[in-house]
Design a protein that fits this description.
Blueprint lengths: L6 E3 L6 E3 L3 E6 L5 E4 L7 E6 L2 H10 L1 H6 L5 H9 L2
Antiparallel strand pairs: 1-2, 3-4, 3-5
Helix pairs in contact: 1-3
């Protein structure tokens, strides 16, 4: 038997996708916001599609701020765009 497909919902588009097609952004207990490429970091996580328009939409509407319940700096969004 192969591995089961793990599905998650994108914050910006509300589409359910395979988590490998999404970025995971995490806020840990210290309040640091990081991009989790392993999908295993502890903390509150949110998922964004690997799509420049959706990342910019999330930045404009401050979707990560709401989902992670903290202030997310513009550097996180810029970093995600460079990783596309």
């Amino acid at each position: 038997m192969g591995k089961k497909e793990v599905l998650r919902k994108c914050l910006a588009s509300n589409e359910v996708k395979n988590r490998n097609d999404l970025f995971r952004i995490v806020r840990n207990k210290e309040g640091e916001v990081k991009v989790d490429f392993t999908f295993k970091m502890n903390g509150r996580g949110a998922y964004l599609s690997k799509d420049k328009d959706l990342i910019l939409l999330a930045k404009k509407k401050k979707l990560l701020n709401r989902a992670l319940e903290c202030e997310v700096s513009d550097e996180i969004y810029d970093f995600l765009i460079t990783r596309l």
